[in-house]
Design goal:
about 190 residues, mainly alpha, about 80% helix
Length: about 190
């Protein structure tokens, strides 16, 4: 869910290139979550209240940061925070980095890998390969979904590039990110 709101932040204001870079960042985050789950690191994070809390609060702070900077850009009537970053010499890394950090710092992805995927493992089997294959399948499905999503947003780009539409989407996205960050910070650990 956080990923989609972060995706929406970039697609309307960028060409499909920004969307594809975000998708690559999200996929890289999923690969790290898959590796962590296969190696048992996700289980440690979920079991350790302190580690889970650190992970959760860092993710919440990042989401609040994205929400506040997006709302600030709307208030200042800038076309987009992404366009400001586009002038930066690191502009090609920004969309990737936003997608990557939003996914990587989301503790719910680790919880998803540990609660949803194990139910598909045969009882008593070695979990490494099946778990890895399910994580890769999930990553591939995410890539396919975001390719379709970027394509659809690209088709709607004329309407989406209108300044009034961008401000509305940015305002809603910023508010949603801010609320998600606050909700994540206030949730109880599992």
């Amino acid at each position: 869910m956080f990923i989609l709101t972060d995706r929406i932040l970039i697609s309307p204001t960028h060409s499909s290139r920004g969307g594809l870079q975000t998708m690559a960042g999200i996929s890289a985050g999923l690969l790290i979550h898959t590796t962590a789950a296969v190696c048992g690191l996700s289980a440690l994070i979920v079991k350790s209240a302190m580690l889970f809390s650190v992970f959760k609060y860092v993710g919440a702070i990042y989401l609040v940061y994205l929400g506040v900077t997006t709302l600030y850009a709307v208030i200042k009537k800038k076309e987009s925070i992404v366009h400001v970053e586009e002038e930066n010499k690191y502009r090609h890394k920004s969309a990737f980095l936003q997608g990557f950090l939003t996914n990587l710092l989301n503790p719910k992805v680790a919880v998803f890998f540990l609660t949803f995927l194990p139910q598909f493992l045969p009882a008593g089997s070695e979990p490494f390969l099946p778990f890895f294959m399910m994580g890769m399948t999930y990553t591939i499905l995410t890539v396919v979904w975001f390719l379709l999503y970027v394509y659809i947003i690209d088709l709607m780009s004329a309407w989406m590039k209108k300044p009034s539409t961008q401000r509305a989407v940015q305002g809603i996205s910023g508010l949603v990110l801010l609320l998600f960050g606050m909700k994540l910070a206030l949730e109880k650990n599992p």
